[in-house]
Amino acid sequence: MSVAASTDTYENTAISARLISVENGVATNSGTLSLGLDIKLAEGWKAYWRSPGEVGLPPEISWDGSTNLATAQILWPAPERFTAFGIENFGYNKRVVLPIQAVLETAGQAVELQAGVTLLTCSTVCVPHDFNLALTIPAGAGIDAASAALISEFAERVPLGPDAADIEVETAVIADGALYVTARSANAFVNPDVFPEMGPTFTFGKPDIRTNNAGTELWAKLPLLASEEQLPPLQVTVTDGSRAVTAMPEWSNTVPDAPFELVANLPDLAQILAIAAFALLGGLILNVMPCVLPVLSIKLTSVLNHGDKPSHEVRNGFLMSALGVLVFMWVLSAGILVLQSVGITVGWGLQFQNPIFLTIMFLVLTVFAANLFGIFEISLPSGLQSRLARSSGRDGYIGDFATGAFAAVLATPCSAPFLGTAVAFALSGRPIDVIIVFTALGLGLSLPYLLFAWKPGMVRLLPKPGRWMLVVKWVLAGLLAGTAIWLLWVLMGVSGVRVAVSVLVLAVFFVLFATIRLPGRFTRPAALAAVAVLSLALPGTMAPPPTIKEIGQDWVTFDRSEIPRLISQGQTVFVDVTADWCLTCKANKTLVLDRVPVVGRLRDEKVVAMQADWTRPNPDISRYLEAHNRFGIPFNIVYGPNAPDGIILSEVLTSDAVLNALDAAALAVDK
Q: Might you report a single GO cellular component term (predicted)?
């Protein structure tokens, strides 16, 4: 056991640590001691602050076994900010002394200190330390000048309280998925930083910090990465060079205005045109995807059934279908701009997380399929039919418009392979970028309709109506039924088996009521309306089961905070953000991830396959995607010791791309 001033040093390749004391002896009238935990960190290593950030552990000291010690409180010097693996951490590098205020049980008597230190240090790997430091300070007098100077140096870095500091932390508010903090100082801010503390369940991303022209007012926005409904007390530390303050600001109800707006780098015309062309091509390709092809086929079949229509009616019908596609895209882009204007993050394809939307689409497709199978015919009342017949064939234009809009709605879950880059560009750009990209997408999707509108005579090149049309009709019915089954399966993942089965039963009743004749003029419409309303009400009244869906033995559930820990242990992490409604995700899994040689590599003991299921809304996954400037899925990224910030893969995976990324990320460890 060391006597006075300092303990023996605990030392390894990452750190050296010792317990030091200002006092060489306990004076007769002294009931306190000034101690310090002196930690020297090797090059590239860091230790953590009392609030470590997104991940990490703060140093802890147990004083069990000490004698004549009542309490010992650590004083925390202001931290630095570290970014590793795309995650924000707070702590120290090179050297830190944690000042410790010790209160004795009996003044003037000797003290025996037993300090059990638990400490985590990280570089490219993280190493926990657990060691004991013993120090005896006898009764007497004397000061260790070197220890006193060292402890005083770091004690001066401990943030002041609000009454003693020249920095005033004014207000704080949580809104739009972020924490906003304001502060002011008579002395201009030079290099400020903000460190909020709200307990372990609240974590924050990299802050956006701005000051006014004079530098005396500070505004900070910190993205909220994880939280809970109940707000714990907030403590904020603001640092600026050698000065720092820790305070508990007043909660505000108003989001403060930023002192200035950031001006984004505007894309040039060539880039906008290239992205628009990419969206146009993607929209065109979507017409042959399984989501959209049945709708286009129905349109062509309806034209064949009315082959005697004049060319101008055929042209107008296809133009209305094209307009339906474009109007849907314009409404969608307008909705996106409105949501973005109020600070809501918008994702592509998120309507397939909405159980009411899924129910509507399932019922519509079920009715269409039943109609094509010949179970019943959809017809208007005879009086209305006669009236519409006198309107020179315009009666079908509403249906043509709906056909185009319907195709556009169904296109979104198939779009990721072709539109991921374009949609991400639009959602992260200016309003005009959103409008241009979504208009180009709509034009691409409506090109087949525009082609037939341009040359209505091309319809005559199609085979004449005959018995073969019955076969086509049944094939189309099968395609629609298959799409309806897929939607029901997605609904099962979003709202649970009970809701899906109940909606299926109600859909059967809907078809039954549409088929049979019921007594009374309004009986059947009333029955159909009642079943439809009940179907739409079900998802809202029956909560989805809280159980977590099984994701397979080769995968672990996504946990963003686990990624740096796994990498620090030499692991490679493959993240797959997927959903039941994402057809491209399913294709990637079936054709690449579940096949040799990729599946064998993912099962390697040095690889962790992590799956983020976005079938249901999940704010953690949404924020994770937004952090990578992504607004839709699939999204796959590989982390490793040689790729701490991740290697992002294309939306359409290939075996070579996955294997090459895994090799590159793990290169520092495996090779």
A: membrane
Task: Decide which of 200, 219, 249 is a domain's last residue.
Answer: 249
The model's pLDDT over 265-312, given as tens digits with 9 standing for 90+, comes to 445 566 677 777 777 776 776 665 555 555 555 555 555 554 556 777
321 with 385, same domain: the answer is: yes
Query: Mean pLDDT in the chain?
Result: 78
Task: Tell me the per-residue pLDDT of 309-362, one tens digit each, with 9 for 90 and over.
Answer: 677 777 787 788 888 888 888 887 787 677 656 555 555 555 667 677 777 777
Instruction: Give first-to-last CA distance, the chain, whole Å.
Output: 45
Segments of 105-190 assigned E as strands? 111-122, 126-137, 167-175, 178-185
Cβ neighbours around 545 below 10 Å, total = 12
Closest CA to 542 of 482, 584, 588, 499: 499
> Which tokens belong to 116?
């059990």
Integer Cα distance of 379 and 384 in angstroms: 10
Same domain for 150 and 169? Answer: no
Residues 148 and 179 occupy one common structural domain:
no
**Burial of 165 (C-beta count, 10 Å sphere; 0-12/13-18/19+):** middle
In a domain, 671, yes or no: no
Residue range 104-119, pLDDT digits in tens: 999 889 999 999 999 9
CA atoms within a 13 Å half-sphere pointing along the CA-CB vector of 231: 12
Tokens 């909606």 correspond to 503
Domain assignment of residue 668, yes or no = no
pTM above 0.85, yes or no: no
In a domain, 63, yes or no: yes
Indicate whether 481 and 445 sit together in one domain.
yes
Q: Could you give the CA distance from residue 670 to residue 413 in angstroms, rounded to a whole number?
A: 38
Domain span holding position 146: 8-154
- List Cβ neighbours of 542 (8 Å cut-off, separation of 6 or more): 495, 496, 498, 499, 502
Residue in 49, 400, 97 with CA at minimum distance from that of residue 195: 49
SS3 (DSSP) at 294: helix
Is the pLDDT reported for residue 198 higher than 50?
yes
Q: Assess whether pLDDT exceeds 90 at residue 526.
A: no
Q: Of 183, 214, 249, which residue sits at a domain end? A: 249
Q: Which region, left, alpha or beta, applies to residue 140 given φ > 0 means left and ψ of -120 to 50 means alpha?
A: left
* φ and ψ at residue 10, rounded to 5 degrees: -85, 130
Asked if residue 560 belongs to a domain, the reply is yes
**Tens digits of residue pLDDT in 48-66:** 999 988 777 899 999 999 9
For residue 423, pLDDT beyond 60: no
Residue 91 has pLDDT above 90, yes or no: yes
Q: How many domains does the chain have?
A: 4
